[in-house]
Structure formats: structure tokens, C-alpha cells
Amino acid sequence: MEQLLHYVWRHKMWPLKELHTTDGRQVEVVDPGLYNRRNAGPDFFNAKVKIGGTLWVGNVEIHDRASDWYQHGHDHDAAYDNVVLHVVGMADADVMNSRREYLPQMELQVPPHVSTNYEELLHTDHYPPCYRIIPDLSRLVLHSWMAALQTERLEQKTEAIKQRAERCNGSWEDAYFVTLARNYGFGINGEAFEQWAYNVPLNAVGKHRDDLFQIEAIFMGQAGLLDLQAVPERYHADALNEGYFARLRNEYLYLAHKFSMKPMDFSLWRFLRLRPQNFPHIRISQLAQLYYERRAGLSNLLECESVEAVKQLLSTHVTPYWETHYVFGSESRKNAKNLSLASLNLLTINTAVPMLFAVGRHRQKEEYCNRAFDFLEKLKAEQNHIVKMWRECGLDAASAGDSQALIQLKREYCDRKDCLRCRIGYEYLRSKSPRS
């Protein structure tokens, strides 16, 4: 497998014997080179190899079979003319570059224990497949890998925020509102909330931000929730008789005409297996209250220097009607419907922290990035099925930084069977001791 040959070359997992080219010259690998994982061109750049006592500096290309060189058209591609060594699993052909020069080739065998371990990682039924080795790993290995995963996850979220800012015509203020709204979906309705946020014209809302009723009318209307078809049929009569639905709808129709607004499709909202306090009506009402109180702005977040300040900033409640309703027309027991502490923790982890990190990178302000990491270390670890799974494997999360790292590990490595990029996978592959 070519991917495994790349891995063996990159980590210098050579067989315990001298390496030779196919024509018998001794090979010494001084530096395997820089791995070119994503871009076009040879697999390793700027490698240093001694062939027959002569030091060569250039690129290395790796294939399962030497004949793959021709299958991939490298013999006509000048980008491969600087290849100084062709590493193959099987040398079934001599190869030439575009200058018609023959290249030195070396057969590289994957050590049997590496191949066996890799097959175990790919095909074991247990999850994660490397679970047996985790208790034996040093704390230094685990800590350094968790720190890298935490940063990697923040980098991914930063890229998503940058894309939102681009979609918002360069407005990081609007990108923050979209990010905040997305995370108000708490997973299930995240995509719908993001689409809703893009559909809310904040410039228009800003002209009415001193009127909570008008803010809620725009927010609910743009969500498509003021369409009578969005109300369960059994509640139609009650919704109309109560009057609040009709007043909101009439206000929205006026404002929609004024600002040329169009609602999103209400069918995008998901209610199945959703707790009532997570219904979009409740979350949108809380966002309307937050916006009305001028606590949904990016500048407000950047002023927060502690986790407690962030939670206080994001803490909100529903507007009066929703204290006794979960949907239009269906009255429920009176409830303050404040954001729970658990919800505030998640919003801090998934909104405030990535936004601080992203703005820090964008503005080149290291203090924001440092604050993001500091918040993660001070917040409690999330409690979900991913964190529970790793805990059962012997890998516990002491903070939100750890739980974010473990989520990244599962989604970006385990789920994709990308063990060759994982440090735990590396330790598993190189291990020669039997595992039961």
C-alpha cells in the first residue's frame, strides 16, 4: 500500500539491514525530506540521500510499483525531473524522467509488524481501534498530541469564521452573529440557524433595535415561523385567538415590505426528539432579547477578559410570551426559560473561544488567541458520548481544551481511519509487543 510506504519512509521505519538501489549501490537516508501531502508534485521535497557514497539533495517519489511512474505520467512531467530517488514496493520497471534520464530506484519493504498493526487499526471491530495502547502511553506523548489537536480544532473553526466573514462582505460583526446563531442550534438545528442568521438583515434590524417587539417580529418572520402553516394545525385556532401571533405576523409583513425581506423555508427546522427548551421559537426569542439588550456584538465579546464575563454577556432569557409557550398557540407552565449553565458553557466553548482566536489571528493580536486558550483551560470538559468513549479507553478530559481535542481526534482521525497522521496511531504502528 503506497500510503503505508509513505509512512515508513517519513518515519524512517527501515528494515534492520542495509538499504540498496536496484543496481546494488548503498543508500543512506540523511533526511527523508518534507512530506508533500496535499499539493501536486513529488511526495517528498528537499530530501538528502547518499547513493553509493555521493550525497544527493532533491525530491523523492514513492509508488507501490515502479511502473506506476509511467501510469501517472511522471516521465513527461518536468516537475519530477529533480527526483533523486524512486522508492517502490516492487521494482517491476526501470523509469526515466522527461529528460530521458534513468532514475535510481530502491525497493522498500514495510516491516511486518508495521503492516500487521496497520491492518489491525483498519479492521478491528473495537472503537477506537488503538484503545489497547492508550494506558501505556506516556503523559508527555498524550499531552503534546492533545495540545496539537486543540489548536487544530481552533484553526478549523477559524477558517469557518473567515468564510462567514467573506460571505458577509467582510463584516466580522455579522460573522459573529452568524456564528452565535449557529451555536444556538446546539447541533440539531445548527445548519438551520446559520441559514436563518444569513437571512436576517442586521442593518434593517438595527434601525428598530430599541423596539423588542419589532426585533422579535423580524427574527421570527425571517425564520418562517410566522407562516400559519408552521404552526401545528391543532394550535391554529389558539394561536390566532391569543393575538400575539397575529400581531407579530402583521408587524413582520409591514417590515418585510419596508425592507424587502423574504422568510426562509420553515420546513428546515427540526423538532423531532428535540426538548421543548431547544425549540427554535425559544432560541430565537432568547437571541432577540440578547440583541435588544445590545449584548450580541463582537465588541462586547472582545471586552470580556474572563470566562465569567463571557457567560454574563451571553446570559439571556425569553421574551414574556415565551415564558408560557414553546410554540405559538400552545400554553405551557410558566417558566423563566433562561439559558442553562450547560448551554452557556457550550456557547462559550463553541462561539466565544473560536471567535477570540479567529479575531486574534485576523488582527494579529496575540492576546486574543492567548485568552481563547486560557478560557478553554478554565472551562469544564464537555460531557458527551465522545468524551465518555475516550474516558472508557483511559483518556480523560480535565478541561474543555481536552474535550475539544478529543472531539477533534474522533472526527478528523478515527472516523476517517486516518491513523497514519495520528500520534497514537504512530505509537501503535511502531510497537512490536503483542496485544491481547
Strand content: 5-15%
Summed over residues and divided by their number, the pLDDT gives a mean of 94
Distance between the termini: 26 Å
Count helical runs: 18
Low-confidence segments, given as residue ranges, are none
Order of helices and strands: HEEEEEHEEHHHHHHHHHHHEEHHHHH
Biggest sheet, in brief?
7 strands, mixed
Q: What's the number of extended β-strand segments?
A: 9
User: Structural class per helix/strand content?
Assistant: alpha+beta
Brief descriptors of the model:
single chain, 436 residues, alpha+beta, 7-stranded mixed β-sheet, two-stranded antiparallel sheet, 18 helices, 9 strands, elongated
What does this entry show, briefly?
Helix content is 48%, strand content 11%. The protein has 436 residues and is of the alpha+beta class. The strands form two sheets. Strands 1, 2, 3, 4, 5, 6 and 7 form a seven-stranded mixed sheet that branches. A two-stranded antiparallel ribbon has the order 8-9.
Can you offer a commentary on this structure?
The protein has 18 helices and nine strands. With 436 residues, it is of the alpha+beta class. The strands form two sheets. Strands 1, 2, 3, 4, 5, 6 and 7 form a seven-stranded mixed beta sheet that branches. A two-stranded antiparallel sheet has the order 8-9. β1 and β2 (26-31) form a beta hairpin. α4 (139-167) crosses α5 and α8 (212-222) packs across α10 (244-259). The longest helix has 29 residues, at 139-167. The protein is elongated, with a radius of gyration of 29 Å. The two termini are 26 Å apart.
